[in-house]
């Protein structure tokens, strides 16, 4: 296995605050790599730099052979980087299927097509339905997004990333606010996706993280204090102190 | 947006849209039957502004780009006719070529700059460009400057005699129908989905992999060109061009028409243009037979229009036609 994502010496400052502190990280092809850390550890800032919505002050991000450090988000998506958002970010005017088909469309040639109704393009609808089936939303395909329950919106968020056909999924707290039953379904889904694509998972649900991750990186004040297998992480004293000790409180 | 979701069968919005278009198609016949030739001129104006508002709606309604400078494209269309006619070029085809060429070039340049901004900055910068063009027109002394100029003749399009009011009317009507049909296809095709996606959540469009700027710019240019066509028709209707066609108040009126009828709905801008211009005409020439009331209405009709707009926006929220569409979706 080889590295699909290589992050080296990433630094991001917001004024005096060092949000990302010389962060280096390497993701192997096909692994689920979890990034955990207490609130304010800079997990979302890190994901935003990978996605391109925030540009780093220093450091380099190489994805699948492309140096994407300074690329805009859409170029990163084009080379196979897909992301989901911590706060559900879907298209409220559209149906579940339209949302997912739009994600397919982003990677199915250009969209300067002015005549053929997109809703009838099999090349868009079929892959979209497949992605919805994967997350268990197929029976809600024609529902307007605005009436979906919270958990369903989170599922849609994942379906959209899948529909882009991304090689690397950046999932920012995919289980946030889900019921235990829904979380379980997502854990099962991510299990199935293992090896099919690489996943960088930011998640607060420790049971899910330890059940899914091949490796875990612990982030504290924007700096990775430890990286290792779930067993290694569980037994590291500084990790327990920095993060897992808090678990009882959270 | 609701058009794509509407279930088959004739429902209130479609019925209304159909009736409105059929009525507009019958206006010259009705005018002749009732002996009111002025109607044809009035409704040609309605059609022209409906066309311009429909163009604006592509960016304003479907793309959430609040352009406060679309009157500039109305002006470009009108001046292309005016200036060529002044130099003795009456060919409508040449005028069309110049109007679309200049319109596309200006829209491409202005759009490429303006679309780097959004929100309030976009509104202000589109207004600034429109004002620049307005003052450019004012400075053209050769072509009438501030006062504008009378056209020597109307555009010549082969056998189409635009001096015949009915012919001009049906030309405007046909153009409106073609643009409406084209836009109906467009907003439901891939391009329209991208545009509407940008309206809803541009950040997400980027992270999905869409280079949003080039789609928004294309929509902006397309929308400008529809207004250019409307401007050409306007010059032919009035046989006159003047900087007032691209005054900022005209840009504002186009926005009001679109919002009044229903943002982001196909027929909304047509309904809005018709409502605004007809209420305007009705109030300013109303004769109720009560002298003091007539004077009041005829002098202060603008204030009453203000009340009408406030009512529509507050009570119907999505505009006249938008309200019908939203009601259908709620069911």
| CATH level-two architecture of the largest domain in chain A | 3-Layer(aba) Sandwich
Number of helices of chain B: 14
Number of domains of chain A: 2
The helix/strand class of chain A is alpha/beta
What is the number of E strands of chain A? 10
Distance between the termini of chain B: 16 Å
Shape descriptor of chain A: globular
The top level CATH class name of chain B: Mainly Alpha
Overall tally of domains of chain B = 1
- Gyration radius from CA atoms of chain A, angstroms: 18 Å
Labels describing this entry:
heterodimer; A: alpha/beta; Rossmann fold; 6-stranded mixed β-sheet; 4-stranded antiparallel β-sheet; 9 helices; B: mainly alpha; ABC transporter involved in vitamin B12 uptake, BtuC; two-stranded antiparallel sheet; 74% helix
Description:
- Chain A has about 250 residues and is of the alpha/beta class.
- Chain A folds into two domains: about 1-80 and about 165-250, Rossmann fold (3-Layer(aba) Sandwich); about 90-165, no CATH class.
- Chain A has nine helices and ten strands.
- Chain A has helices at about 45-50, 75-80, 95-105, 120-135, 150-165, 180-195, 205-210, 230-235, 235-245, and strands at about 5-15, 15-30, 30-35, 60-65, 65, 80-85, 170, 200, 215-220, 225-230.
- In chain A, the strands form two sheets. Chain A has a six-stranded mixed beta sheet, sandwiched between helices. In chain A, strands 2-1-4-5 form a four-stranded antiparallel beta sheet, with helices on one face.
- The radius of gyration of chain A is 18 Å and the shape is globular.
- Chain B has about 325 residues and is an all-alpha fold.
- Chain B has a single domain (about 1-330), classed as ABC transporter involved in vitamin B12 uptake, BtuC.
- Chain B has helices at about 1-5, 10-35, 40-60, 70-85, 90-115, 120-140, 165-190, 190-210, 210-240, 250-260, 270-285, 290-300, 300-315, 320-330, and strands spanning about 150, 155, 160, 240.
- In chain B, strand 2 and strand 3 (about 160) form a beta hairpin.
- The interface of A and B includes residues 73, 101 and 115 of A.
């Amino acid at each position: 296995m080889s590295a699909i994502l290589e992050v080296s010496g990433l630094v991001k400052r917001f004024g005096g605050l060092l949000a990302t502190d010389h962060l280096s990280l390497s993701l192997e092809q096909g692994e689920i790599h979890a990034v955990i850390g207490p609130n304010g550890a800079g997990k979302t800032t890190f994901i935003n730099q990978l996605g391109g919505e925030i540009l780093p002050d220093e450091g380099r991000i190489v994805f699948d052979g492309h140096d994407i450090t300074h690329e805009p988000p859409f170029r990163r998506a084009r080379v196979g980087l897909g992301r989901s958002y911590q706060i559900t970010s879907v298209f409220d005017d559209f149906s579940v299927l339209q949302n997912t088909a739009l994600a397919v469309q982003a990677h199915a040639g250009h969209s300067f097509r002015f005549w053929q109704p997109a809703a009838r393009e099999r090349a868009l609808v079929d892959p979209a339905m497949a992605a919805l089936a994967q997350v268990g939303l197929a029976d809600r395909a024609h529902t307007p997004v605005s009436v979906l329950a919270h958990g369903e919106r989170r599922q849609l968020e994942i379906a959209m990333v899948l529909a882009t056909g991304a090689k690397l999924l950046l999932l920012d707290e995919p289980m946030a606010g889900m019921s235990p039953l829904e979380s379980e379904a997502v854990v099962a889904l991510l299990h199935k996706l293992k090896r099919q694509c690489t996943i960088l998972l930011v998640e607060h649900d420790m049971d899910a993280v330890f059940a899914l991750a091949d490796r875990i990186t612990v982030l504290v004040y924007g700096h990775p204090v430890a990286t290792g297998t779930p067993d290694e992480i569980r037994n590291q004293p500084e990790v327990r102190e920095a993060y897992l000790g808090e678990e009882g409180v959270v | 947006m609701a058009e794509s979701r509407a279930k088959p069968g004739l429902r209130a919005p479609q019925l209304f849209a159909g009736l409105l278009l059929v009525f507009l198609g019958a206006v010259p016949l009705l005018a002749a039957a009732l002996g009111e030739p002025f109607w044809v001129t009035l409704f040609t104006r309605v059609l022209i502004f409906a066309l311009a508002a429909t163009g604006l709606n592509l960016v304003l309604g479907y793309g959430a780009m609040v352009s406060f400078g679309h009157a500039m494209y109305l002006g470009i269309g009108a001046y292309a006719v005016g200036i060529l006619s002044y130099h003795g070029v009456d060919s409508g085809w040449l005028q069309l070529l110049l109007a679309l060429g200049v319109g596309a070039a200006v829209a491409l340049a202005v759009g490429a700059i303006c679309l780097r901004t959004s929100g309030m900055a976009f509104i202000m910068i589109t207004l600034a460009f429109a004002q620049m063009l307005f003052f450019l027109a004012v400075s053209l002394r050769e072509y009438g400057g501030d006062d504008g100029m009378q056209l020597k003749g109307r555009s010549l399009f082969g056998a189409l005699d635009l001096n015949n009011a009915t012919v001009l009317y049906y030309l405007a009507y046909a153009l409106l129908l073609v643009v409406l049909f084209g836009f109906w296809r467009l907003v439901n095709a891939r391009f329209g989905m991208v545009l509407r996606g940008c309206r809803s959540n541009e950040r997400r469009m980027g992270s999905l992999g869409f280079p949003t700027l080039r789609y928004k710019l294309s929509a902006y240019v397309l929308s400008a060109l529809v207004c250019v066509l409307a401007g050409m028709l306007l010059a032919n209707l009035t046989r006159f061009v003047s900087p007032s066609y691209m005054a900022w108040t005209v840009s504002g009126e186009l926005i009001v028409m679109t919002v009044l009828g229903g943002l982001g709905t196909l027929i909304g801008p047509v309904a809005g243009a018709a409502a605004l211009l007809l209420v305007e005409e009705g109030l300013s020439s109303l004769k109720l037979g009560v002298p003091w009331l007539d004077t009041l209405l005829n002098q202060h009709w603008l204030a009453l229009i203000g009340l009408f707009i406030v009512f529509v926006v507050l009570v119907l929220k999505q505009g006249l036609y938008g309200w019908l569409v939203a009601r259908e979706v709620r069911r």
